[in-house]
Amino acid sequence: MIPVHVIGMGLGPEDLTARHLKIIKQAQILIGGRRHLACFKDHPARKKAITGDLDGLVRQIKKQMTDKQVVVLASGDPIFFGIGPLLVDALGAEHVVIHPNISSVAAAFSRIKQRWDDARVVSLHGRRPEKSFLDAVAGHEKVVVFTDSKKTPGWLGQQLIKAGYDKAMMCVLENLGAPQERVAWYSPKQASSKEFEKLNVVIVLRQAMPEISSRPLLYLKQHQDLHLGMPEECYHHETGLITKAEVRAISISKLCLRPGMVLWDLGAGSGSVSLEASLLLRGGNIFAVEQDPERISHIRQNKKQFRVRNLDIVQAKLPGGLKHLPKPDRIFIGGGGKDLVSTIKAAGAYLKPGGVIVINTILLSSLDKAMAALQSLGFSTEVVQVQVSRGKPMPSGQRLEALNPVWIISGYR
User: Fold this and answer.
1) Which single residue of 87, 89, 174, 345 has CA 20 to 30 Å from 162?
2) What gap in Å lies between CA 121 and CA 119, rounded to an integer?
3) How far apart are CA 122 and CA 107, in angstroms?
4) Which tens digits make up the pLDDT trace of 97-107?
5) Which segments in the chain show pLDDT lower than 70?
6) What is the pLDDT of residues 85-142, one digit of tens each?
7) Phi and psi for 85 in degrees, rounded to 5?
8) Distance (Å, rounded) from C-alpha 392 to C-alpha 345?
9) At residue 404, what are phi and psi to the nearest 5 degrees?
10) DSSP letter (8 states) at residue 193
11) Does the domain at residues 105-205 carry the CATH identifier 3.30.950.10?
């Protein structure tokens, strides 16, 4: 059995070395994309164009490699998002020789003269490509995207706008290495309405969110990304009706969140607890249940502003609206009002074994009722009081201004 040589073409035939050309000259079967084969139209080898039928291609290579020299031409670097790994898996590593070359990603960053060792590379081929793309943008300032005929740079622009990244910048590099090469920068809005060449690579540079409060610019730069204990003014919310930053951080710690869990945020208000909990629930899901239309609007705005995608918003009057949701691992109740007890009992019935329910209240009467309701359902309970005082400037110094004390009640199943 003769080893199959897989040769990276780089950006084009001018990137082939003398060693590459010597191996190609010896080929008896030459396989590649049509544009690659066109570079060797006078080559005497039998030629085979790569199509979508990769299983059929592998079968043909296995048959021919028994007594013929097969050479496969690949774009860029064949082992980097290319056909190389497929052939190694199908034919066995001992039967494949990989000849690397310049990848399109390396070429793209050389054009814009930026480093790319800190970039995330995403291919849009596969199921739910929008998820892999937006996950990459959420976690990285610099993302490189291999597009296809349907998931074009225009499609990328639309996805960025929907996810709240309308301030990002997109560099679209078309026909890299060809005489008609074009490199240009676009906003997501500009890209969403434009047609591009089929051969392209896209670099997405994420930018900071727009300012959202009147605090000094230095403060905003320090707090531009979602984190635990965000200042209340960073959220759209109804005046006074938001879990305070310090209480929010402690309440989230009491939930004992882990990746992959399902969290219900009942009486979600502005959604601040849901949003910050998302930082600890990678791969999980959060369901924010709220009945007030204005507060629902605030949750939507905050979700978009902080680009949180594992949050579903449910408009319902508690204790209704729960039976169609996935069963939760954790429940947070930040607003129950006169329906607090019925909400605890209804929600508690859905909580998975080993689950945790955390309740915030400022009323002594609600404290007693919540503890009794949890204990009646067989939960072991814990309660802490959080009293926060914040510094306020005075002409000759600072004074402390107390916020309402909050009871944080935890129930463990």
Assistant:
1) 174
2) 6
3) 16
4) 999 999 999 99
5) 126-128, 207-224, 335-336
6) 999 999 999 999 999 999 999 999 999 888 899 999 999 876 667 788 888 898 889 9
7) -60, -35
8) 41
9) -60, 135
10) T
11) yes
CA 308, 313, 318, 320 dihedral sign is negative
Nearest to residue 252, comparing CAs of 227, 231, 270, 233? 227
15-52 residue pLDDT tens: 999 999 999 999 999 999 998 999 999 999 999 999 88
Tokens of 128: 């739910």
Q: List the structure tokens of 90.
A: 């199908």
**Is residue 11 within 8 Å of residue 107, measured between CB atoms?**
yes
Q: In what order do the strands lie in the sheet containing 4-8?
A: 46-49, 29-32, 70-74, 4-8, 96-99
Domain-by-domain residue ranges, the chain?
Answer: 4-102, 105-205, 217-412
113 has which bridge partners?
none
Task: Give the Cα separation of 7 and 97 in Å (integer).
Answer: 8
Instruction: State the sign of the Cα–Cα–Cα–Cα dihedral 315, 318, 321, 323.
Output: positive
- Within 13 Å and on the Cβ side, how many CA atoms surround 267? 21
Question: At residue 140, what are phi and psi to the nearest 5 degrees?
Answer: -140, 140
**Following DSSP, what letter does each residue of 42-107 receive, concatenated?**
T--SEEEE--S-HHHHHHHHHHHTTTS-EEEEESB-TTSSSSHHHHHHHH-GGGEEEE----HHHH
Maximum C-alpha span of the chain: 92
User: For 4-102, which CATH class?
Assistant: alpha beta
Task: Give CA–CA dist 148/163, Å, rounded.
Answer: 20
- CA dist., res. 318 & res. 203, Å (int): 45
User: Model pTM?
Assistant: 0.55
User: Which two three-digit tokens encode residue 210?
Assistant: 């727009």
State how far the Cα of 287 lies from the Cα of 235, in Å rounded to an integer.
18
Give CATH for domain 217-412.
Answer: 3.40.50.150
